[in-house]
Amino acid sequence: PEFLAAFQARIDADEKIEPNDPMPAAYRKTLIRQIGQHAHSEIVGMLPEGNWITRAPTLRRKAALLAKVQDEGGHGLYLYSAAETLGVSRKQMTEELVSGRAKYSSIFNYPTQTWADIGAIGWLVDGAAIMNQVPLCRCSYGPYARAMIRVCKEESFHQRQGYEIMLKLAEGSPAQKEMAQDALNRWWWPSLMMFGPPDGASEHSDQSTRWKIKRFTNDELRQKFVDATVPQAQRLGLSLPDPALAWNEAEGRYDYGEIDWDEFWAVVKGHGPLNKARVAARKKAWEDGAWVREAALAHAKKRAARQSVAVAAE
Amino acid sequence: PEFLAAFQARIDADEKIEPNDPMPAAYRKTLIRQIGQHAHSEIVGMLPEGNWITRAPTLRRKAALLAKVQDEGGHGLYLYSAAETLGVSRKQMTEELVSGRAKYSSIFNYPTQTWADIGAIGWLVDGAAIMNQVPLCRCSYGPYARAMIRVCKEESFHQRQGYEIMLKLAEGSPAQKEMAQDALNRWWWPSLMMFGPPDGASEHSDQSTRWKIKRFTNDELRQKFVDATVPQAQRLGLSLPDPALAWNEAEGRYDYGEIDWDEFWAVVKGHGPLNKARVAARKKAWEDGAWVREAALAHAKKRAARQSVAVAAE
Amino acid sequence: MPAAWVAALIGLADDHLILGHRLSEWCGHAPMLEEDLAMPNIALDLIGQARGLYTYAGDLEGAGRDEDALAFGRLERAYRNLLICELPNGDFAHTMLRQFYFASFMQLFWQETESSTDVTLEAIAAKAVKEAQYHRRHCAEWVIRLGDGTDESARRMAEAVTLLAPYTGEFFIADPEAGGAVEAGVLPDTKALQPAWQADIEQVFAAAKLVLPENVYAQKGGRSGLHTEAMGHLLAQLQFMQRSFPDMTW
Amino acid sequence: MPAAWVAALIGLADDHLILGHRLSEWCGHAPMLEEDLAMPNIALDLIGQARGLYTYAGDLEGAGRDEDALAFGRLERAYRNLLICELPNGDFAHTMLRQFYFASFMQLFWQETESSTDVTLEAIAAKAVKEAQYHRRHCAEWVIRLGDGTDESARRMAEAVTLLAPYTGEFFIADPEAGGAVEAGVLPDTKALQPAWQADIEQVFAAAKLVLPENVYAQKGGRSGLHTEAMGHLLAQLQFMQRSFPDMTW
């Protein structure tokens, strides 16, 4: 209890907690869970966009998409490293992911059906991610906060890129505009769901807030996202698939319709369109790659052994 | 020697040899080799055309191609059955094929690059096959001769279908006509090679002729094919890729240029564009299917055991 | 039959085209030669059924779209096939189970359609029902053989059940585009086919010693053009020639 | 640089596009996260090189074809890439060995091209040579690691050698479309690069404990548009959008 109070005092003083600092077990556990989920989301997030790398419409778009998906892998790497500072290995986390036990952002369980989905993901999904992540740049845990600073910078580049894809489509032929509208229709609601269940139904929030792991509630972040995104959609000349959406002059914000929480919980529980396919794809990559990782290890050992023999002989 | 003379007398009298008839070991061996190669050719021959089933340009063409490739599988089945009457099992023959030891028609080691190749194969490759096979309908070995009658009927249907594909292309847009000409350019020489090495260089021929397994020499059949095919090409308005090709009034046949026998032998020896890929595809199908064949066998045994128990209990 | 139901016919045709396409991918790669004949044979029947349905849909629509315009000329979001039809083949157990599920359903569907008030559909059904019966029998035998074969085949069959079961619920969701066609006796009420289908599956699973899946969450979306990621790659192949060489005769 | 050599530039660009495309297929499916970063990185470099070459070829040609018209708008028979670039990825050993073969060759190629009499190519080479060096080093390390790793990795590497060796001879066959460009000092004489390439392979194979293949029959045809059957399926993906939505801006 004394320790907890002292720890809370450090947090309250906006001190950063570093890997070797003492910390409550629950703080560590919460962070491991959250950073792990975040890392998994980056890794699984490579799949829906990766699905269009071989079919991108121009070389410029192909290169940009390849770079973007690669960035996501990079984010996964920083985040796994941040989690490792808390005493959990990348291998452990990966095994949790491929066994289907670990969670990741549910949005990646939806399919990318058209090229416009690549635009919509960049614009909306990365946009929502930024809303979630910007406050994390001030998270109390140092390694996570620092990883987030780097991630956010790249995400906002991706978001602009996604918006620009949408813009080109919206300015394009009727077929392109229709593709853009259709993608927006399909990704809008899942994007709103990215902020998690409504505040009443969300676990962990209070303690996380006290520990400055979380700084805004789900509904606060969702509202910020809606307020930022509606004018962007208007600039594209696209309509949002929500008849209840309206400017609320009194509150200075957009009101929006009821989210389909049944769909949200179904996807969380593994029943989204591609949950099984996503985990299966990661599992296949992991299992098919086992011999490569073993060989790399075996080779490193052989090389080390040869070097020590060489050193001994000198 | 007495037996051999008696056997030859039966052959000379145009009697059919049947599975349970006594026959010289060399006759049996020759037939096993030839029928096996012929069966393998049908099976491997499914691959180049199968490559276009998923990309056929219309539903009518897709259905016809599917039916054609299926017919080839059927031919393989009759031929393996004919070979089995000589005491070699389908399993043995298949293992020879997938190990890369067995021969099959070299033409199937060339790739199908465009839709026109499907036309060219039907027209030229099936056309050449018919030239080779029609005489085999009178082969001295009964089961082979009977299989060939059925095969030839279907092959000539396929050949007309292939020619009709070419005709549609030749009558079509410039892009289609160019595709047809290109396919003819690529398949013409390999088709001439299908009749095997020139008469001087061919093994087995003399004995096979005496046994009425072979009734014409390679060069005779090749000449028949050229004479039949040149006017067909003219009707299509396509040119044959042979500057030496010319009507020989005196002999009443077409003269044609020198065949690139180096290429022929290279492909026979396994260095054609797709020899390795063809054998690998058959090997994969065979190995991937092992568990299915084992399960079918295991189930049949279980069922038989249950039936005998049921019978015993009556 | 009113043109309003064209989309429902197209959906039905898409089921057959797309599943036939998938099945045709096996051609030359089957586990045994007999199946290298049987699978293309089933694929041929499915493509034949698709052709009849597309042609009739095109006639009813009256916009000049023939079977090929419908089969090859649409964007992914306009294809209305059930999701189960587009799933990648997986192994032979997976392919046979999928085909059994579908054929068992279509056998019941065509049986009902044989007494359609629409004479063209009645005629299509009369032919198709016999084909579906043969497909169902062939595939049911494989489900039993593999389910009650070796340990490996039983394991693979059980895996196929787990993977495919979520996609069977979509058979019995009423097609919104068929509104009225059911009441008019033109198309069967698929919901009403579920008990007979379920009984068929149970009977075959019992013989195959397979465990019936429980509490399955049904995947849907195909009839609204919401496809899996496999669909786009399938269409890239299927449409390759028509997209590369538009408006030509083959 | 005369327009007569445009086709040679296009062939070179095709090598990079097609191999980059193949490599990009690994994205999200690599054996470890580090390779999920490294392989797209190499693919990006290759696609970048392809873009520079296509653009230059289009400018020289003067027919209004930009990088995308060249990359996406041709029929299979007009693609001029070396066959090794289009082969399916196979396993990781296969992919790394292919990339090593290619990068080792391209490193030498770009080194020579750095002193091209053509200033644009000189500039492309100056950037590309550094990239090829990095690719070569990265892939050579994997060839060594896997060749001298476990029994399984050594077996897979040896298999990759058997499968790929026939496709390396094509590096050193003079491109008929480059006739004169070599004499003019614009493009390197690839034949002359063979000894240095061979020495590089030998050195890496020695470290990897891999046996050098002997009496290999060289496959060729890519530079004449004679491709393997894998190419058509690759193009169905690559060209999907441009074929489905012609003449649009993205």
Based on DSSP secondary structure assignment, what is the total number of beta strands of chain C? 0
Overall spatial form of chain A:
globular
Beta-strand content estimate of chain A: under 5%
Structural class of chain A: mainly alpha
Organism (chains C, D): Planktomarina temperata RCA23
InterPro entries (chains C, D): Aromatic_CoA_ox/epox, Ferritin-like, Ferritin-like_SF, PaaA_PaaC, PaaC
Protein name (chains C, D): Phenylacetate-CoA oxygenase, subunit PaaC
Features:
heterotetramer, A: 314 residues, mainly alpha, two-stranded antiparallel sheet, 13 helices, globular, C: 250 residues
Structure write-up:
- The complex is a heterotetramer, with two copies of chain A (314 residues) and two copies of chain C (250 residues).
- With 314 residues, chain A is mostly helical.
- Chain A has 13 helices and two strands.
- Chain A has a two-stranded antiparallel sheet.
- In chain A, helix 6 runs parallel beside helix 8.
- The longest helix of chain A has 29 residues.
- The model of chain A has no long low-confidence stretch (mean pLDDT 95).
- Chain C is 62% helix and 0% strand.
- Chains B and D meet through helix 8 of B and helix 9 of D.
